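2024-03-11 09:14:02 INFO worker-7 job=invfold-0412 stage=load source=structure_tokens
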């Protein structure tokens, strides 16, 4: 006979904490882009176990559900990191939270059994703070993309996302367009009334009613097509200069766009291209871990690689979504050497870049630009690019990406979206 053993329930602080809320609060930690500030407390370049402790401690130090002595210990740990020490019960709390994130498949550890690793002061020669790293899983990446998209679009009011509309007509779901005679290959979405009326006109009102091939009428609908998209992300050093981090917000926009394209536009293809001194294609799963560097901005090479990728896609629509601070400072010469000029806007670099934009337009590729700077000469550059390719430019700040100036060069209108 089986026995059930009952034990006294001992409540644990934050046992019911919402993991989705916690992952969203850790967004800046996992999307850290290599920007270093002297005011940053901690080690900014690696998602190690110690850095994750620090990030969690900073979040939980203001949580009123914890005992006051625990919050004080967490606050001291944040101030004294990396030399600070945590009480055993507080460290156990952080370990349980990290294990729950791992079990829920939001993050993964570089080593299995990380929770059994000896802590500092236990006679271990290996420091787990340096040896164990954490990164987002595909589930965590997709969740942050969803949350970022919600934040980005929250100020735009109600909005329904659908497939890509065109100016052509097809035969699918009913619309307000008039029906037309059926042609071989059309979707058999019959306009019953018009079909019967044709038969009556031909033979008169009698039973049985004979239908001929010429009587068939089908509804016309707006033709919707799939689209091939390249996310072109600037990771040059200029994205973290001038006292601010522009690259982390750029990755947030990229994650949001990636989530939108993958979930709201079935049938679309999506590739990610980074451009710096040169350009390279990366898998989407690497997007969250991308760091800044090398130093220069080869916009021309990024557009060229994106165009080559899109020309291999058998899609009706092709587009490039470029996220940049708008300052091209390098081009690749015909002999393969990279010409660089970080001082201002070099006329030769601009000319090569504009020529590549023209090539994209001739290939039927639309370029939409997310601009993360508002310097007048950089704005002029993005305007010129958008005018050449008849694309769109979205001007945003790093403080609030949801408030931006939407410049639609296809309809020649400019408006501020709040």
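2024-03-11 09:14:09 INFO worker-7 stage=emit residues=418
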């Amino acid at each position: 006979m089986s026995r059930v053993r009952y034990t006294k329930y001992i409540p644990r602080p934050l046992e019911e904490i919402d993991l989705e809320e916690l992952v969203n609060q850790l967004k800046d930690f996992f999307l850290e882009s290599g920007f270093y500030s002297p005011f940053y407390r901690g080690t900014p370049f690696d998602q190690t176990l110690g850095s994750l402790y620090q990030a969690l401690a900073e979040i939980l130090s203001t949580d009123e559900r914890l005992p006051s002595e625990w919050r004080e210990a967490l606050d001291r740990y944040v101030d004294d990191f990396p030399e600070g020490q945590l009480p055993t019960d507080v460290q156990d709390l952080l370990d349980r939270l990290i294990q729950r994130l791992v079990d829920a498949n939001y993050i993964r550890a570089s080593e299995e059994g990380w929770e059994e690793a000896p802590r500092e002061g236990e006679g271990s020669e290996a420091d787990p703070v340096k040896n164990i790293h954490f990164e987002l899983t595909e589930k965590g990446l997709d969740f942050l993309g969803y949350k970022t998209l919600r934040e980005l679009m929250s100020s735009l009011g109600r909005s329904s996302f659908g497939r890509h509309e065109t100016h052509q007509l097809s035969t699918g779901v009913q619309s307000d367009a008039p029906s037309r005679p059926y042609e071989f290959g059309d979707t058999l979405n019959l306009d019953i009334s018009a079909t019967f009326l044709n038969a009556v006109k031909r033979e008169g009102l009698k039973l049985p009613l004979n239908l001929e091939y010429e009587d068939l009428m089908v509804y016309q609908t707006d033709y919707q097509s799939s689209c091939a998209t390249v996310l072109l992300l600037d990771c040059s050093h200029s994205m973290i200069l001038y006292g601010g981090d522009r690259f982390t917000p750029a990755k947030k926009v990229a994650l949001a766009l990636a989530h939108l394209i993958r979930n709201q536009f079935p049938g679309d293809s999506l590739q990610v291209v980074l451009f710096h001194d040169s350009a390279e294609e990366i898998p989407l799963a690497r997007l969250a871990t991308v760091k800044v560097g090398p130093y220069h901005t080869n916009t021309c090479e990024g557009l060229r690689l994106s165009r080559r990728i899109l020309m291999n896609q058998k899609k009706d629509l092709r587009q490039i979504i470029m996220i940049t601070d708008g300052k091209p400072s390098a081009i690749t010469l015909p002999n393969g050497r990279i010409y660089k000029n970080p001082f201002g806007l070099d006329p030769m670099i601009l000319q090569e870049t504009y020529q590549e934009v023209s090539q994209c337009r001739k290939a039927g590729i639309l370029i939409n630009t997310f601009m993360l700077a508002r310097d007048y000469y950089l704005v002029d550059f993005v305007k010129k690019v958008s005018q050449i390719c008849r694309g769109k430019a979205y001007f945003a700040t790093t403080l609030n990406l949801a408030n931006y100036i939407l410049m639609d060069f296809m309809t020649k209108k400019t408006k501020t979206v709040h």
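2024-03-11 09:14:09 INFO worker-7 stage=report msg="The two ends are 68 Å apart (CA to CA)."
2024-03-11 09:14:10 INFO worker-7 job finished
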